[in-house]
Write a structure and sequence with these properties.
Length: 257
């Protein structure tokens, strides 16, 4: 099953099933044009993994880590499939980072690697947007990683049977492939990530683990469209506009020309 959270024409939030370009719920079928898709989960936190592909470590001139590198994105970072995301004003470089997201199905702590599959509700696509201006000069990456809408997630939560072994992951910018890899290239695999995280941190139902990005990350400009596709899961698409500060406490949002 591929589950979808959406707001129906009456404004109610529902959880339905993705069905060939439509959403089914309660015996009704809704065209995508008639509903608003929401992030497929409502996490208390997004736990992200840094440098989990050797080729991405190489492109950043970083050493391959000896253990998973963890950082957090907060709930304000969420955006859904099809949302138009406004890039922060006065920042020179915001990068896309396409990733596989693991959605947790139950509250859990101290999960052994052999038991990790039992706590997985399913998988989704994540774009871990990164504000490089601030990330380069701060240690905790709050400005760099947790600015508003910096974690587009979706379009669906695909239950585990949909994710094939060695699933491919691809990021496209304005139709051109920028990242192309496979989850076989993960340095730390999903069971190890869950065990490492839950050794010290309780994960809640709905939390997301963003498993890391392959090589090919690059900057986004206003007017761009970025798609993240994970084989068996689906394609997350978002448009981006540049935020222009007016100086009076308001913002005009206009695409770069």
């Amino acid at each position: 099953m591929r589950k979808v959270r959406f707001r129906d024409p009456a404004g109610s939030v529902r959880v339905g099933e993705w069905a060939d370009g439509a959403v089914e719920f309660g015996g009704q079928r809704f065209d995508l044009a008639d509903v608003s898709l929401l992030p497929p989960t409502d996490p208390s936190k997004i736990v992200c993994i840094g440098l989990n592909y050797a080729n991405h470590a190489a492109e950043t001139d970083s050493d391959v880590p000896e253990r998973p590198l963890l950082f957090l994105k907060t709930p304000n970072t969420l955006a859904g499939h099809g949302d138009t995301v406004t890039l922060p004003e006065s920042r020179e470089r915001i990068d896309f980072e396409g990733e596989l997201g693991v959605v947790i199905g139950e509250q859990c702590r101290n999960v052994a690697e052999d038991d990790a599959e039992e706590v997985i509700a399913g998988y989704t696509c994540v774009n871990d947007l990164s504000n490089r201006d601030d990330q380069r000069v701060e240690q905790n990456w709050v400005r760099g990683k947790s600015f508003d809408n910096s974690a587009p997630v979706g379009p669906v939560l695909a239950t585990p049977e949909h994710l094939p072994d060695g699933a491919s992951i691809e990021t496209r910018q304005n139709g051109e492939v920028r990242q192309s890899s496979s989850i076989d290239d993960l340095i730390f695999e999903i069971p190890e990530l869950i065990a490492e995280i839950t050794e010290l941190m309780t994960l809640e139902a709905g939390d997301v683990i963003a498993t890391g990005t392959p090589e090919g990350v690059g900057p986004i400009s206003g007017g761009d469209e970025v798609e993240v596709e994970v084989e068996g899961v689906g394609t997350l698409r978002n448009d981006y506009v540049a935020g222009e500060f007016t100086g009076d406490g308001t913002h005009d949002f206009v695409p770069n020309q």
